[in-house]
Amino acid sequence: MARDPCLHIALIVLALVAFKLYSLEIVSRSYLACEWCLSNKSVPHETEFLLILLALHLMSCVSRWRIVRRGFRVLVVAATLLAALDLWVSQQFWVRLTASQMFEFMGESNAIGGYLQQALPSIWAKLAAVLAVSLLTLVFARYAMDDKRRLPPIFLYLLVGFGVVGCELVETKEYHDNFLQNSLQVFFSPQTSSVPYSKEFASSITGQAPQPKACNAASGLHNDVILVVFESLSMYHSALYSGIHDWMPEFDALSRTGVRYTNFYANGVTSEQGLVALLTGEPPIAKPMATKTMFEQFRTPEQTVPRVLHDQGYHSSFLTTGNLGFMGKGQWLKDIGFDETEGHEAAFYRGMKRYNFDAAPDDALYARALDRLQQPRTQPVFMTLETVTTHLPNVDPETGAHSQEATYRYADRQLGQFVRQLRNRGFFDHGILIITADHRAMVPMSAQERALYGDRAFVRVPMTILGTGQTPRVETGAFSQADLLPSLRNATAKGQQCVGANQGVFLPSAVQTAQCILTNRSYNANSVYAHCGSRDFTVALNGDQTAFVDAQQPPPDLLHTVHSLRLGRGFP
């Protein structure tokens, strides 16, 4: 029995399932302050996973053809490897592994190699990893080659059939489903958002008359603008914005000295989606393009912030300590009009310790920004700073501790020091600083967040603006990342500037809020969520069949807006 490869594979699978349930319980207690709020709900999903693997194994026992028996065993091995990879990804980044994501990340060998280098820093760690992989390969090979025909008891087949049906009946459906489902459910989840429109339907949308726009006189200001895209900055990190944690005291103090936006939304749920919304003025709604990355989908938007500001005489730059090669970010930034882009390869960071995405810590990014601002120039500046340190798995650069609180406190201190240096240099006499997030942190939502913001907590993020003309006040109007482009255009251009009903303008002060704010959710990539005042609507994306889900009296032009954006026509 001890040498039975079936027993070995069973132990590996059970260990993976047990570790996932244990991890969910740790997360539930750490983030949600709730015992047995996640792991017990995941048990039916994981039981179904075990039953599916058992079914594949049983099929490998009864077939009279060797190739069929080995084929089923290879499927068992593949499902086990998928579960292990999904578990590793979710442990490190709190995202689940889908088929489309796997195809996207397969081309990111440099980023994966860099991450493994960080995860396995010593020669002993590398040797241990090689030994573990070798042992697992041996176990999987022995199991796949052990293709003797057997006739298992009939009750096992009944157990599988009734068990799968029973699991489907008791599985819960809630906003944490993305974390609860087993690896096969997530990996093979249908992607209706990539279903294309028919040519006839697309023509009918583009042929409709444009919607009325609101116009006002732009301000014609030419202040310098720095946009800090603070990785994963969330409402729950701030005592001032939510009262849940007090991990961002410097940011809170800064927010009291400028315009504090307490009803601000991230349109997306990933860094890529956040950058798309902030820099193109469009919510990052998935376009009907199979296996296209987010940056590829938005390579030729109607407008971009760098191009809008270039028309007003600005020089635009994008600085990060992260790897611009990841997901083609660097090329996309050039495509949308940035004059200069700079990432982890910059000579300024040479010799510095690296963390996620081969990035130097945040203090290095701010030092580089100050260095660039000192250089002689004849144009106003638009500078985007994308931080990286607070990306999962949250490693504090000062102590090396894996701690969310310590990492955010470190990043908060560096932000405060950066702003003090800007103030000492007189930047705020002629410039504004915008601080917001790329998205909410990729962790489960706590009961406190849900009580404060409901389902909108997945996309509510802080924003504050400091500097010229930004007298201290609280702005309660609803704005989103996609409103940055029309807001900067309104602040810097001259003459009449017009926006659609679903676009907001908050610079140089609040002019118009969007009728509806369009956002995504991490737990459902096939829908768009519209927040229209106090009402919420869900739009299921499915090509020509895209439609509201159980909506009562939705705004009449909202669905047309979604179609127009997905077809690359911008806001109608």
Query: What's the CATH topology label of the largest domain?
Result: Alkaline Phosphatase, subunit A
Neighbour order of strands in the largest sheet: 6-5-7-2-8-9-3-10
Q: What would you call the shape?
A: globular
Strand content bin: 5-15%
How far apart are the termini?
A: 68 Å
Description:
- The chain is α/β, with parallel strands linked by helices.
- The chain has two domains: 5-189, no CATH class; 219-515, Alkaline Phosphatase, subunit A (3-Layer(aba) Sandwich), CATH 3.40.720.10.
- 43% of the residues lie in helices and 13% in strands.
- It contains 20 helices and 16 strands.
- The strands form four sheets. It has an eight-stranded mixed beta sheet with strand order 6-5-7-2-8-9-3-10, with helices on both faces. A four-stranded antiparallel beta sheet has the order 13-14-15-16, with no helix packed on it. Strands 1-12 form a two-stranded antiparallel ribbon.
- Helix 1 (5-31) packs antiparallel against helix 2 and helix 1 packs across helix 6 (123-145).
- The longest helix is centred in the N-terminal third of the chain and has 28 residues, at 66-93.
- The N and C termini lie far apart (68 Å).
- The relative contact order is 0.14.
- The model has no long low-confidence stretch (mean pLDDT 90).
Features:
alpha/beta; 2 domains; Alkaline Phosphatase, subunit A; globular; four-stranded antiparallel sheet; 572 residues; 16 strands; eight-stranded mixed sheet; 20 helices
Secondary-structure map:
Elements: H1 5-31, H2 39-62, H3 66-93, H4 99-105, H5 109-119, H6 123-145, H7 154-170, H8 177-180, H9 183-187, H10 199-206, E1 214-217, E2 224-230, H11 249-256, E3 259-261, E4 264-265, H12 271-280, H13 294-297, H14 305-310, E5 315-320, H15 329-335, E6 340-342, H16 362-373, E7 381-386, H17 404-424, E8 431-437, H18 447-453, E9 463-467, E10 473-475, E11 479-480, H19 484-492, E12 496-499, E13 517-521, E14 524-532, E15 535-540, E16 547-548, H20 558-566
